[in-house]
Amino acid sequence: MPCTSLPGRMSLTVVGSIAFDAIQTPFGERRRALGGSATHFSLAASFFTEVRPVGPVGDDFGPAEYEVLRRHGVSTDDIEHVEGGRTFFWSGEYAWDLNTAKTLDTQLNVFGDFEPKLSEASRNCDLLFLANIQPDLQRDVRAQCRRAQVAALDSMNFWIEKTRDSLLQTIGLVDMVLMNDAELRMLTEEPNLVKAAGTVRAMGPRVVIAKQGEYGAALFTEDGFFALPAYPLETVRDPTGAGDSFAGGLLGYLDSQGGSIDDATLRRAMVYGSTLASFWVEEFGCERAEGLTRDDIDERYEHFKRITAIESVPAG
Ligand code: AMP
Questions:
Q1: Residue 91 beta carbon below 6 angstroms from any ligand 1 atom
Q2: For residue 313, how far is its CA from the centre of ligand 1 (angstroms)?
Q3: For residues 113 and 305, what is the distance between their CA atoms, to the nearest angstrom?
């Protein structure tokens, strides 16, 4: 069951793409799947907390798409409908190596001249996720969410290539960076991942998480290092959204724990993030969110800890 809003509860705002995706993998295809970084993130985080995605959509984003979000208790108040516009569109394909998406097309559409105007509830969030989108927009939203005690950021090669200086400025304003390992290397021009994480931490963020696809994820903090494999799955159909559902599970869990980012809580959050990502890749786009329950998630979380023998994950 999705979380419902309770008085006094923490809240989580996310800015990122809200999209239609055309996806091809060796196991099938979708021509028009609901996607976007903010969408995957919000649906995954909805199992832990109240979440508010911020972003524009066009006329092609209809009641069916809003309904998917609302069914999961995701607030749609800050989704702005741009009259006459078209929703962000991404098209990508994966070969047998499902770790690497080949982008075939990216159409920014309504994101081209989007100026985020956040509702009071979104501005007053406790945790903020700047999901993958133009870094100028990420910074704009960061500036509006003054009360946020933890701000985290994701990005990708597209923005590193096109808007590197802006992205570096945004990184200087956040507490946590979650990026693919290849993109951390690309951003820092540093082939060694430990050094690359150190370079990003020297820019300001206290926490760096390197996402490593089917190999898992690694956490770098001042005092600690924690590496987690991916949950062993026999069926993977579509990796789209794995990174964002990982982030949604991780930040959603942190939010449900009062926003604490000590090493012990972060390690548990890593396991929850990986658990959410493992469900996501079993079906195309965000289809696996349908019918998923918090009990399913907790059951796999416990199994995951058992089979990986993670003694270092404290109870809680
Ligand atoms: P991931 O979790 O990394 O697989 O991200 C998947 C989502 O990223 C897809 O649903 C796409 O709509 C979205 N996406 C792809 N390229 C971009 C981009 N350049 N900016 C923002 N979002 C993107």
A1: no
A2: 30
A3: 45
Q: Which atom of ligand 1 is nearest to the CA of 88?
A: 12
Beta strand pairing call for 225-228 and 19-25: unpaired
pLDDT digits (tens, 9 = 90+) for 120-163: 999 999 999 999 999 999 999 999 999 999 999 999 999 999 99
Burial string for 40-53 (b: 16+ CB within 10 Å, else e) reads: bbbbbbbbbbbbbb
Nearest atom in ligand 1 to the alpha carbon of residue 19 is 12
CB of 223 within 8 A of CB of 217? no
Which of 14, 23, 39, 90 has the most ligand 1 atoms within 8 A of CB, as the residue to mutate?
90
Give the C-alpha separation, 288 to 279, whole Å. Answer: 6
The closest residue, in CA terms, to atom 1 on ligand 1 is 241
Cα separation, 204 vs 260, in Å, equals: 18
Q: Tell how far the Cα of 37 is from the centroid of ligand 1, in angstroms.
A: 5
The 10s digit of each residue's pLDDT in 262-298 is 999 999 999 999 999 999 999 999 999 999 999 999 9
Q: Is the Cα dihedral 130, 133, 138, 140 positive or negative? A: negative
Give the residue carrying structure tokens 């907790």. Answer: 298
Q: Which atom of ligand 1 is nearest to the CA of 245?
A: 2
**pTM higher than 0.85 for the full model?**
yes
Q: Measured from the CA of 92, which atom of ligand 1 is nearest?
A: 15
